[in-house]
Hints:
The protein is mainly α. Helix content is 66%, strand content 0%.
Amino acid sequence: xxxxxxxxxxxxxxxxxxxxxxxxxxxxxxxxxxxxxxxxxxxxxxxxxxxxxxxxxxxxxxxxxxxxxxxxxxxxxxxxxxxxxxxxxxxxxxxxxxxxxxxxxxxxxxxxxxxxxxxxxxxxxxxxxxxxxxxxxxxxxxxxxxxxxxxxxxxxxxxxxxxxxxxxxxxxxxxxxxxxxxxxx
Length: 185
């Protein structure tokens, strides 16, 4: 892929649907979308472009992040249905779905900054981290901790995950204390 093709991708990125990004029809099955995402990832994964100029690497990274965002939405049946509804209304990148995809900033370890999912080294740990964040956001730190323990088994020694675990422990203790106080009343 040359610089011109990258420029064309960047120019079109905000005006194409997630389906167009993967060159897949809106009625594609989950397996067809997975295959399309893998083809997309083979082309745009940043690790395969380390030799490029830093500006091109940044462009490829932006395209790839949009692709992973698309995959997370399209691979979840609930989010996909909501996305299809948004597309039918002319919205190609609904912010409410993108925000749901992003891990809450407050849950990322403050010293590390950024998103917790970006600190995960082992691909197998990613779904567990995403689920832990989702559960924490819903106010269930105990179940979030279980998911995080699974992630830590796959990504041993990850300081960001361990810091998140400490936050979950504090949230579990605070919730237990609140529950105890509510029983006293």
